[in-house]
Amino acid sequence: MKADARFRQLHSFSCHGISFATVLMMAFCLAAPFAGAQSTGGRIRGTVTDPSGGAVAAATVQLVNEATHATREAQSGANGEYVFLEVPVGTYEIDDTSQGFKKYARKGIILDLNEVVSVDLTLQIGGSTEVVEVTGAPPVVDTTSTQLGAVVNETRGEPVAAQRS
Question: 127 is in which domain, residue-wise?
């Protein structure tokens, strides 16, 4: 009789333990996709085209951090598109040295946290020893975000545009 009672107690304990472990594993599996959701940078994307607007496939696009001089490279696809993912916040230069085109260089590209910056490159036909450096270009626009922003006056909490002198 004692053995039967102990067996029931052991069986009950192991069923509770298995149930608890199952619930714990399910909670872990459901929470795991959200654990890596924090982003530490942004994205820089664009399209490489020739003067006629045609896509330049297999162009080597180089991204250079202007502060650290760290360099990354990406190849444009068949449609001329390239993308750099998880780029740390900072100011960047984009270079392209494709065969049959002049070297392209654009400096001063500012990237903020979780921002998507579009930088389209239009290459000029010529030798790679010639350089086309883009300066004073219009600011890049994030066309993939629907967020709105406003500057707020510190003392009154009113938008700056509504403030009068």
Answer: 41-134
Residue with tokens 């910056």: 117
Cα 88 to Cα 111: distance, rounded to the nearest angstrom? 8
**84 and 71 in contact (C-beta within 8 Å)?**
no
What are the pLDDT digits (tens) for 8-46? 665 555 555 666 556 556 665 565 555 555 678 999 999
| CB within 8 Å of 112: residues ≥ 6 apart | 42, 89
Residue 153 in any domain: the answer is no
Report the C-alpha gap between 31 and 8 in whole angstroms.
35
Total Cβ atoms within 10 A of residue 115: 19
d(CA 129, CA 20): 68
Other CB atoms within 10 Å distance of the CB of residue 141: 10
Number of domains, the chain: 2
Inter-CA distances, 109 with 40, 44, 146, Å: 18, 9, 21
> What does the DSSP 8-state code read for residue 78?
T
